[in-house]
Design brief:
This protein has 585 residues and is α+β, with helices and mostly antiparallel strands. It folds into 3 domains: 177 residues, Threonyl-trna Synthetase, Chain A, domain 2 (Threonyl-tRNA Synthetase, Chain A, domain 2, 2-Layer Sandwich), CATH 3.30.980.10; 251 residues, BirA Bifunctional Protein, domain 2 (2-Layer Sandwich), CATH 3.30.930.10; 92 residues, 3-Layer(aba) Sandwich (Rossmann fold). Helices cover 37% and strands 25% of the residues. It is built from 18 helices and 28 strands. The strands form 7 sheets. Strands 10, 14, 15, 16, 17, 18, 19, 20 and 23 form a 9-stranded mixed β-sheet that branches. Strands 25-24-26-27-28 form a 5-stranded mixed β-sheet, sandwiched between helices. The chain has a 4-stranded antiparallel β-sheet with strand order 1-2-7-6, with helices on both faces. Helix 12 links the parallel strand 17 and strand 18. Helix 1 crosses helix 2. The chain binds one RNA strand of 75 nucleotides through helix 4, strand 4, strand 6, strand 7 and helix 6.
Length: 585
RNA sequence: GCCAACGUAGCUCAGUGGCAGAGCAGCGGUUUCGUAAACCGCAGGUCGUGGGUUCAAAUCCCACCGUUGGCUCCA
C-alpha cells in the first residue's frame, strides 16, 4: 500500500528542479493574470512549494471560484503564446522605482543584503522581483491547476495585513498532474476523520468541541496502544503513576504555567478557590519527587503517567484526532543526574526506534532544537546537554535536522515527526531537557559526597498524544490494522440460520484464546456479510456452513489475501497466534 | 484568534422565497443462501442555534455555535 508523503524524499533531483521551475513560472503567470483582473492588486510573494505553488496578493475583495476560472483562462492564453522569461539585473534605486507602488516588494528589497544582485524576471508585460530560476518560456508549463484560496498573513505574522493566497500546482506533464490529483483523492479516503466514523472508532460532538468520544472499537485500539507502551516500560525500567486531574492554582503559579500558559488552560472554581485542569503532568511529578528525600542511588527515576490532559487549543488549529483539547500522552519524566543525561536519552531513542519500527514509521523526521537567546541555565550545562543529544542521535543512525535557537528556554529538545495521509508532518515523540522545573520545585538529591545536588528533568513522550498517534496510525494503515491492533480480529459468518450454533462455538473457542471475534448473526446473505466485514477491514472472515460444522473447521477468508480454504479451528488459533506476534506488519 | 467556505434524516447529498426530498443505513416481513450489495414494505426532520425582513424563509439579512481548508515553504 503506497504511502503518500509530502516530502517525496526519493524523487530524482533533476525532476525536482524542473518542477520547481515550472511551478515558480506558473506562479508568475498567475500573478500576471490576477493583476490584469485586479489592476490595483499588491503583490506579496509567490514561491514554488513541495506540492505546487502559491501567490499572496492584496486585493480589494476575496477571490471567488469564478475569479479562479478567469485567472486560469488568462494563464492558458499566456502559455499558448509561448513568451520568453527574461532575466534582468538592476541597480537598487532602479528597482525601487520599478516597484514604487508595490509596498510588499519594497519591504523585501530593503531586506536583501547590499552585495546581492537584484534581479527581475519578465514575461509579456509582467515583471516581478525574483531570483528565479524559471523555465525558458511560458509555453514550457505543460500542466497546471489552481486549487484553492486562503487567507494568509503577510510574512506569517498575525500583526501584519492578511493577504489572499491562491494555491495551485503544476507538473511536467498532464499525466503527472492527473496522477497527483488522483493521489489526493485516494488520500482523502484514508482521512482518519472519515475512517473513524466509517469504522466506528470515535465521534465528535459540538457539545465538547475538539474532544473525541472513543467508541468501543476505538477504545480497544486506545488500550492496546497503552498496553504496548506499558510492555516497553517494564523492559526499559519505568514506573507508572496516577496523579490528580485538577490542582489548586498555587501549583500552576509555582510551575510557571500560570504566567506562560494561562490562555491554554481550563479553570474551575469551587469553595472560593481556583483550580486549574492539568495541561501537562510535569508539576504533579515534580511534586511527587519532592515528597521524598532522594539519594543519587535512586536515580535515574523514570515516572510514567497516562493522565488525561486538557488544553484550550485555539479554535482554528484543532483538527480531527491530531489536534484536540482533551487527550492523554505516553508521558514520562526522568529525574537524573547531569552525568546520566546521555545514557537516558540513548535509552529513550532505542525504545522509540523499537516502537516506531513496530508501527512501520521507519523514517521519522527528526529535529534537534538548540539553545535560544533567551534561556536559563549555565552555558556549561547547555554545552553538556546539547553534546549529549547530538552524540546519541549520531549513534542512532537516524537522519536529523539541527534547528539552532529553536530550543525551549528551559532546555534543548529532540522532536520526532511522522506524516499523515496527505503528507502533513505531525509531531509525535519528543524528549526535552528541563533545567527550570528542578529550580522551581527546588528538587534535590543527596550526592555520593553527602552534598545536596539538583537533578535534571527529561520530559519525554514516545507515541506522544495517543489521540494524535491513533489519527496518524489510522491513515498510515488506511484503517486496515494489523491483526494485533484490529479492534475486531475476525467475524464468524454462518451461511444459514442452522449454522448459528456452530458459529457461536467457533467464536467461543477463539475468544477463550483471547482473540477479539464476533459472529454476524443477522438474517442476511453471506455475500453481504463478507462485503461488510471487508469494508470494515476486519482481518479475517470465518465462513461456516454444513461442511465446516461437520469437520470442525472454518473456511478462512483473509481481508488481504481472499479465500484461504477450510482449516481446523485449532489450526486457525495457531495461525492467529503466530500472526498477532508479528507486530508492525 | 484571523481569512474563506460550509452546516438539510444516522451517512452522502439534492432542494435559491410558496406542501421538506433521494440513495444508503435503520425497522418489519419474505427468503436460508458457499466468498464484496436478495426481494417487498414501513418509519425517519425545530433544515446548527437565536433574532430580523416578508403575506410567506431551509432559501434573504444579522449575531452566535460548530466543522473544513489556510495563516511554517520568502525576492
Amino acid at each position: 500500500m503506497a504511502q503518500i508523503r509530502k516530502k517525496s524524499r526519493r524523487v530524482d533531483p533533476e525532476l525536482l528542479d524542473l518542477r520547481q521551475r515550472i511551478r515558480h513560472s506558473a506562479s508568475h503567470l498567475m500573478a500576471d493574470a490576477v493583476t490584469r483582473l485586479f489592476p490595483e492588486a499588491k503583490l506579496g510573494i509567490g514561491p514554488p512549494t513541495d506540492e505546487g505553488f502559491y501567490y499572496d496578493l492584496d486585493v480589494s475583495r476575496p477571490f471567488t471560484p469564478e475569479d479562479l476560472e478567469k485567472v486560469t483562462q488568462i494563464m492558458r492564453d499566456t502559455i499558448a503564446k509561448d513568451l520568453p522569461f527574461v532575466l534582468k539585473e538592476h541597480e537598487r534605486e532602479d528597482i525601487k522605482q520599478l516597484c514604487h507602488d508595490q509596498p510588499y516588494k519594497l519591504e523585501l528589497i530593503d531586506e536583501i543584503p547590499e552585495d546581492e544582485p537584484l534581479t527581475t524576471y519578465t514575461h509579456d508585460a509582467f515583471t516581478d522581483l525574483c531570483q528565479g530560476p524559471h523555465v525558458a518560456s511560458t509555453g514550457k508549463i505543460p500542466a497546471f491547476k489552481l486549487l484553492s484560496v486562503a487567507g494568509a498573513y503577510w510574512r506569517g505574522s498575525e500583526d501584519r495585513p492578511m493577504l489572499q493566497r491562491i494555491y495551485g500546482t503544476a507538473f511536467e506533464s498532464q499525466a503527472a498532474l492527473d496522477e497527483y490529483l488522483h493521489q489526493i483523492e485516494e488520500a482523502e479516503k484514508r482521512d482518519h476523520r472519515r475512517l473513524g466514523r466509517e469504522l466506528g472508532l470515535f465521534l465528535f460532538d459540538p457539545i465538547a468541541p475538539a474532544s473525541p468520544f472513543f467508541l468501543p472499537k476505538g477504545a480497544i485500539l486506545y488500550h492496546l496502544l497503552m498496553e504496548y507502551v506499558r510492555g516497553l516500560y517494564r523492559r526499559y525500567g519505568y514506573q507508572e503513576v496516577i496523579t490528580p486531574q485538577i490542582f489548586s492554582t498555587d501549583l500552576w503559579k509555582r510551575s510557571g504555567h500560570y504566567d506562560n500558559y494561562l490562555e491554554s488552560m481550563f479553570f474551575i472554581h469551587a469553595d472560593d478557590r481556583e483550580f486549574g485542569v492539568k495541561p501537562m503532568n510535569c508539576p504533579a511529578h515534580a511534586l511527587m519527587y519532592s515528597s521524598q528525600l532522594h539519594s543519587y542511588r535512586d536515580l535515574p527515576l523514570r515516572i510514567a503517567d497516562f493522565g488525561r490532559l486538557h488544553r484550550y487549543e485555539r479554535s482554528g488549529v484543532t483538527h480531527g484526532l491530531t489536534r484536540v483539547r482533551s487527550f492523554s500522552q505516553d508521558d514520562a519524566h526522568i529525574f537524573c543526574t547531569p552525568d546520566q543525561i546521555s545514557e537516558e536519552v540513548q535509552g529513550f531513542i532505542a525504545m522509540l526506534q523499537e516502537s516506531y519500527s513496530t508501527f512501520g514509521f521507519d523514517e521519522p523526521l527528526v529535529m534537534l532544537s538548540l539553545r535560544p537567546d533567551k534561556r536559563i541555565g549555565s552555558d556549561e550545562i547547555w554545552d553538556r546537554a546539547e553534546t549529549a543529544l547530538k552524540d546519541v542521535l549520531d549513534r542512532s543512525g537516524l537522519d536529523y535536522e539541527v534547528k539552532p535557537g529553536e530550543g525551549a528556554f528551559y532546555g534543548p529538545k529532540i522532536d520526532f515527526f511522522v506524516p499523515d495521509a496527505i503528507g502533513r508532518e505531525w509531531q509525535l515523540g519528543t524528549i526535552q531537557l528541563d533545567f527550570s522545573l528542578p529550580e522551581r520545585f527546588d528538587l534535590e538529591y543527596i550526592a555520593e559526597d553527602g552534598s545536596q545536588q539538583r537533578p535534571v528533568v527529561l520530559h519525554r513522550a514516545m507515541l506522544g498524544t495517543i489521540e494524535r498517534f491513533i489519527g496518524v496510525l489510522i491513515e498510515h494503515y488506511g484503517g486496515a490494522f494489523p491483526l494485533w491492533l484490529a479492534p475486531v480480529q475476525a467475524v464468524v459468518i454462518p451461511i444459514a440460520d442452522r449454522h448459528l450454533g456452530y458459529a457461536e462455538e467457533v467464536k467461543e473457542k477463539l475468544v477463550q484464546q483471547g482473540f477479539r471475534v464476533e459472529v454476524d448473526a443477522r438474517n442476511e446473505r453471506m455475500n453481504l456479510k463478507i462485503r461488510e466485514a471487508q469494508l470494515q477491514k476486519v482481518p479475517y472472515m470465518l465462513v461456516v456452513g454444513d461442511r465446516e460444522a461437520e469437520g470442525g473447521t472454518a473456511s478462512v477468508r483473509s481481508r488481504d489475501a481472499g479465500d484461504m480454504g477450510a482449516l481446523p479451528v485449532t489450526e486457525v488459533i495457531r495461525v492467529f497466534g503466530e500472526e498477532s506476534k508479528v507486530r508492525g506488519r
